[in-house]
Amino acid sequence: MTDPIIVGITGASGAMMARTMVDALLRRDIPTVALCSNAGRLVWQEEMGENFNDTLVEWQEHPTFSHYPINDLRAPVASGTYPTSGMVMVPASMNSIASLANGLSGNLLIRSADVCLKERRPLVIVPRETPLHSIHLNNMLTLSQIGAIVVPPEPAFYLKPQGISDIVNFVVARVFVALGLDRDLPDEMQYQGPDDELAPYRG
């Protein structure tokens, strides 16, 4: 069995991405640890129309799933001696990104991300905010410079997405690649357009 992937769910908009990420990991029987901030729980209720605890009950039916309260700094994922295969913060709020970029680990989610950085383990950040000002950008630059991978949840318009789920599935697929769980995107998510490789980038 591989070491677990940590999924950190903050209070940014985009709960569907977190739900899809955990579901995809569990479908592959990849050990998964979910951490959700208090603000993340509120957004979950608002956007998903379900209580986060009810979702936990569903996930906990899978034998490779674990969850720890956000304030449980004695949880194993708070220590660098606990092996993991990496972490994704999805969605990642600007507050959580700022805390992480400045070494402030006030809860288990941020502490777990900090552990990934110090242990040189994969850390993927899916930021949710627009427009971005210089402080946001500098915080993400800081994290990128010390090893984090920033994956903005950008739609792949060339795939002609038919709805939000198509966009979310693409973002999750990009996260799988960034974490090293997949080598490439699925064939159906790769650009299959004109022979001109620069076509998607031309004005």
Walk me through what this model shows.
With 203 residues, the protein is α/β, with parallel strands linked by helices. The protein has one domain: 3-Layer(aba) Sandwich (Rossmann fold), CATH 3.40.50.1950. It is built from seven helices and six strands. A six-stranded parallel β-sheet has the order 3-2-1-4-5-6, sandwiched between helices. Strand 5, helix 6 (134-145) and strand 6 (149-150) form a beta-alpha-beta unit. Helix 1 crosses helix 7. The radius of gyration is 17 Å and the shape is globular.
Helix and strand topology:
Elements: E1 5-9, H1 15-27, E2 32-36, H2 38-48, H3 52-59, E3 65-67, E4 86-92, H4 94-101, H5 108-118, E5 123-127, H6 134-145, E6 149-150, H7 164-178
Parallel strand pairs: 1-2, 1-4, 2-3, 4-5, 5-6
Helix pairs in contact: 1-7, 4-6
Question: Short summary of the structure?
Answer:
This protein has helices at 15-27, 38-48, 52-59, 94-101, 108-118, 134-145, 164-178, and strands spanning 5-9, 32-36, 65-67, 86-92, 123-127, 149-150. It is α/β, with parallel strands linked by helices and 203 residues long. The protein has a single domain, classed as Flavin prenyltransferase-like (Rossmann fold, 3-Layer(aba) Sandwich).
